[in-house]
């Protein structure tokens, strides 16, 4: 059984916040592949990056996404960089994929207070965020069936819109 919706987008776009609220509105379970990876590794994502390296994290992420796509019928949020994998993008064909988009300024503002994102933990998080957006925007759009700008809508407003758009 396929997920009711797969949620993708950059860090801070609201994949977890909106994904959880969308699942509640649809009356289905929520799952986040970042949580699956942490549970399987037994350590936080920041430790996986520093101890095992990003390639090991990306390999674990490919496996986690493939497993969750095959077995989760609810709302599934992917990690921000999951779409970097060509194999993952191919697996997403035929799924309902929601791209939550966020601007550079708002994405930096939303992620600025957290140290839990290893890719943005360097000395210039704004430059890193810009680099991520530039490289990934075409990839999010390649897999998306619905795109929503989240800059000036609350999570509740976004969920209301999505529930309308996802109705069969
Ligand atoms: N539409 C929104 N408007 C304002 N703030 C928001 C919105 N969506 C999410 N936020 C806030 O932005 C922050 C990041 O949200 P969230 O953790 O859901 O993003 P994410 O896409 O899951 O990020 P990550 O890729 O790091 O997992 C949180 O503090 C959340 O409350
Ligand atoms: O944007 C990214 O590459 C990441 C986003 C997070 O969801 C985590 O998957 C991890 O921190 C990497
Ligand atoms: Mg999240």
Automatic annotation (TrEMBL):
Where do the annotations place substrate binding? Answer: 34, 58, 80, 136
Q: Where are the transmembrane segments?
A: none
Q: Could you say which EC number(s) this protein's record lists?
A: 2.7.1.71
Q: What class of enzyme is it?
A: transferase
- Where does the chain bind Mg(2+)? 16
ATP-binding in keyword set: yes
Kindly list the GO molecular function terms attached to this UniProt entry: ATP binding; magnesium ion binding; shikimate kinase activity
Can you supply a Gene Ontology BP term from the record?
Answer: aromatic amino acid family biosynthetic process
The cofactor note from the UniProt entry for this protein is:
Binds 1 Mg(2+) ion per subunit.
**Subcellular location as annotated:** Cytoplasm
Q: Summarize where ATP binds, as residue positions.
A: 12-17, 117
**What reaction does this enzyme carry out catalytically?**
shikimate + ATP = 3-phosphoshikimate + ADP + H(+)
Query: Which family is annotated?
Result: Belongs to the shikimate kinase family.
Name by which UniProt lists this protein: Shikimate kinase
GO CC annotation: what is one? Answer: cytosol
């Amino acid at each position: 059984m396929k997920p009711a919706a797969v949620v993708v987008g950059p860090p801070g776009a609201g994949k977890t916040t909106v994904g959880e609220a969308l699942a509640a509105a649809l009356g289905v379970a929520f799952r986040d592949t970042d949580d699956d990876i942490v549970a399987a590794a037994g350590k936080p994502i920041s430790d996986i990056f520093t101890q095992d390296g990003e390639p090991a994290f990306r390999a674990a992420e490919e496996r986690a996404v493939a497993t969750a796509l095959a077995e989760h019928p609810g709302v599934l949020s992917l990690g921000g960089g999951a779409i970097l994998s060509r194999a993952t993008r191919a697996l997403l064909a035929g799924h309902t994929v929601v791209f939550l988009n966020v601007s550079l300024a708002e994405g930096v503002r939303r992620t600025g207070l957290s140290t839990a994102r290893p890719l943005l933990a360097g000395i210039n998080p704004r430059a890193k965020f810009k680099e991520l957006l530039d490289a990934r925007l075409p990839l999010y759009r390649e897999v998306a069936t619905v795109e929503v700008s989240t800059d000036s809508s609350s999570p509740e407003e976004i969920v209301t819109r999505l529930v309308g758009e996802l109705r069969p």
